[in-house]
C-alpha cells in the first residue's frame, strides 16, 4: 500500500480516486511515498528516503526543487493544460478590466448605494469610468504553451490582433496555432509593437526578470502588462516606476506581494488563475492518475525531471525501475547484473532527459534483495524500485 501526503488542499475527486484504489493519506510528509502539492513551497524541504514522487496539481513547478529531486530519484509530475482554460478566462477578464475602469465603476455604485438618486447620478458619473475596446488592439503573447495558445485564440475571436513569441515552441504546437497569430522572432519586436503584453512562460533561471527596466523601456507608451505566470518574471521596482510615470498604463497581475499590492494603476488578484472547480478537478484527477501509473506500473507521463516511459499496465510479473545518470555503460552493467541473477529482460524502455535517465525493465525470474542491492551499488545508479503486481 502506498501512502500519500497532501501539501495543499487537493480536489477530492483526485484524493477519493486514490483512496478507492487503496492508497492511504498520511499527515506526516516523511511517512509518505508521494506528495500531492499545489503552490506550497518545497524548495527548502528535505526529501525523505521513502519519497518516490511529487505530483504538482498545476503547471508551474518553481515551488519544487526539480533537479534535486531528480538526483534523489524522486519523479516530479505536473498537469500540463489541466488549468489552462481557467487561466485563459481570467486573463481575458484582466484585459477587459484594464480597458475600462470597471472596478472604479463598481466601487462608485457601492459607495452611492444608499442614494435614492443613484440612477440619475450614475448617468453623470459614468464618463469617469469609460475606456476603450480590446477589438483592434495588438496583444503580444509571450509563451505559446497551453495557456498562451488558448489566450491567443480567445483574443483573435474577440477581434484583437495577436503577436506571439515563443522560441521553444515544438513544431506540433506551432501547427496547432491559429494562422492569424503574427510570429515575433524576438522579444523586442513584440514589446515595441503591442498595446497589451501578456506573460505565459514558466519561472526559470532564464525567464526570471525577463520584463526588466530595459524591456519596459522598449514597450509602447501607455501599454498594459498582464502577468498571470509568476511575479519573478518582472522587475517590480522598474515596473512600479513605469506605472508611476505613465510609461505603462496598467499592470494586471495574479500575484499579490508587498510590491505589487502597493503599485499605482495595478489590478492585483490573489493567485486566482486556477481557482475554478473545473480546473481544480482536472488537475487533481490528472495528478492522481499519473501518480498511480508511476507507483503501480513504473510509467512516467508528464514529468518535469525524467523523460516519458510507458510500458502500459503491469499485468503480471515484475518490473525494475532504475534512475541513473545519463552516462555510458550503465545499461550494460545493469543487464549483466540481471543476467547474473538468472533473470530475463522481457521488455525495456530507457529514456534520458538532460543528465537524468530512467530505465524500466520487465523481467521474468526471481528478483532478490541481493540483486536490488547490487543494482543500487552500480556506478551512476540513483535509485532502484522493484515493482510487483
Ligand atoms: N495564475 C495561475 O494560477 C497559473 C495557472 C497555471 C499556470 N500558471 C503559470 O503559467 C505558466 C505557463 O503555463 P502553461 O500551462 O501555459 O505552461 P506550458 O509549459 O504549456 O507553456 C509555457 C510556454 O512557455 C514557453 N517559453 C519558455 N521559455 C520562454 C521564453 N524565454 N520566451 C518565450 N516563451 C518561452 C515554452 O516554450 C512553452 O511553450 C506556468 O509555468 C505557471 O508559472 C499560472
Ligand atoms: O494551484 C493553484 O491554485 C495555482 C496553480 C498555478 O499557479 C499553476 O502553476 O498551475
Automatic annotation (TrEMBL):
The keyword NADP does not apply. Its EC number is 1.1.1.399, 1.1.1.95. Belongs to the D-isomer specific 2-hydroxyacid dehydrogenase family. Pathway: Amino-acid biosynthesis; L-serine biosynthesis; L-serine from 3-phospho-D-glycerate: step 1/3. Residues 319-389 form the ACT domain. It catalyses: (2R)-3-phosphoglycerate + NAD(+) = 3-phosphooxypyruvate + NADH + H(+); (R)-2-hydroxyglutarate + NAD(+) = 2-oxoglutarate + NADH + H(+). PROSITE patterns: ACT, D_2_HYDROXYACID_DH_1, D_2_HYDROXYACID_DH_2. It comes from Thermophilibacter provencensis. Gene3D superfamilies: 3.30.70.260, NAD(P)-binding Rossmann-like Domain (3.40.50.720). This is D-3-phosphoglycerate dehydrogenase. Keywords: NAD, Oxidoreductase. InterPro entries: ACT-like_dom_sf (IPR045865), ACT_dom (IPR002912), D-isomer_2_OHA_DH_cat_dom (IPR006139), D-isomer_DH_CS (IPR029753), D-isomer_DH_CS1 (IPR029752), D-isomer_DH_NAD-bd (IPR006140), NAD(P)-bd_dom_sf (IPR036291).
Amino acid at each position: 500500500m502506498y501512502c500519500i501526503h497532501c501539501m495543499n488542499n487537493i480536489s477530492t475527486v483526485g484524493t477519493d480516486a486514490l483512496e478507492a484504489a487503496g492508497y492511504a493519506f498520511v499527515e506526516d510528509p516523511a511517512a509518505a511515498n508521494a506528495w500531492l502539492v499545489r503552490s506550497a513551497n518545497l524548495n527548502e524541504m528535505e526529501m525523505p528516503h521513502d519519497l518516490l514522487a511529487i505530483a504538482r496539481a498545476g503547471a508551474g513547478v518553481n515551488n519544487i526543487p526539480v533537479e534535486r529531486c531528480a538526483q534523489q530519484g524522486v519523479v516530479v509530475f505536473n498537469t500540463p493544460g489541466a488549468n489552462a482554460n481557467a487561466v485563459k478566462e481570467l486573463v481575458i477578464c484582466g484585459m477587459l478590466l484594464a480597458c475600462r475602469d470597471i472596478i472604479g465603476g463598481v466601487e462608485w455604485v457601492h459607495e452611492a448605494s444608499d442614494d435614492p438618486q443613484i440612477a440619475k447620478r450614475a448617468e453623470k458619473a459614468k464618463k469617469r469610468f469609460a475606456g476603450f475596446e480590446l477589438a483592434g488592439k495588438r496583444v503580444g503573447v509571450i509563451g505559446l504553451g497551453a495557456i498562451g495558445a488558448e489566450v491567443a485564440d480567445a483574443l483573435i475571436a474577440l477581434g484583437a490582433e495577436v503577436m506571439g513569441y515563443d522560441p521553444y515552441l515544438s513544431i506540433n504546437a506551432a501547427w496547432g496555432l491559429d494562422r492569424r497569430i503574427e510570429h515575433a522572432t524576438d522579444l523586442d519586436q513584440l514589446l515595441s509593437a503591442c498595446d497589451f503584453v501578456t506573460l505565459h512562460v514558466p519561472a526559470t533561471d532564464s525567464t526570471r526578470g525577463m520584463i526588466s527596466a530595459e524591456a519596459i523601456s522598449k514597450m509602447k507608451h501607455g501599454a498594459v502588462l498582464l502577468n498571470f505566470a509568476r511575479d519573478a518574471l518582472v522587475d517590480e521596482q522598474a515596473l512600479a516606476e513605469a506605472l508611476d510615470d505613465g510609461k505603462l498604463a496598467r499592470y494586471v497581475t495574479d500575484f499579490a506581494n508587498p510590491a505589487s499590492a502597493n503599485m499605482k494603476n495595478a489590478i492585483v488578484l490573489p493567485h486566482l488563475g486556477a481557482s475554478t472547480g473545473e480546473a481544480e478537478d482536472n488537475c487533481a484527477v490528472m495528478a492522481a492518475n499519473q501518480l498511480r501509473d508511476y507507483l503501480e506500473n513504473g510509467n512516467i507521463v508528464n514529468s518535469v525531471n525524467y523523460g516519458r516511459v510507458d510500458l502500459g499496465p503491469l499485468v503480471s510479473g515484475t518490473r525494475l525501475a532504475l534512475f541513473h545518470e545519463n552516462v555510458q555503460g550503465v545499461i550494460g552493467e545493469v543487464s549483466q547484473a540481471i543476467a547474473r541473477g538468472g533473470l530475463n529482460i522481457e521488455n525495456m524502455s530507457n529514456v534520458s532527459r538532460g543528465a537524468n535517465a530512467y530505465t524500466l525493465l520487465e523481467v521474468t525470474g526471481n528478483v532478490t534483495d541481493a540483486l536490488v542491492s547490487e543494482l543500487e551499488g552500480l556506478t551512476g545508479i540513483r535509485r532502484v524500485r522493484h515493482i510487483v503486481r
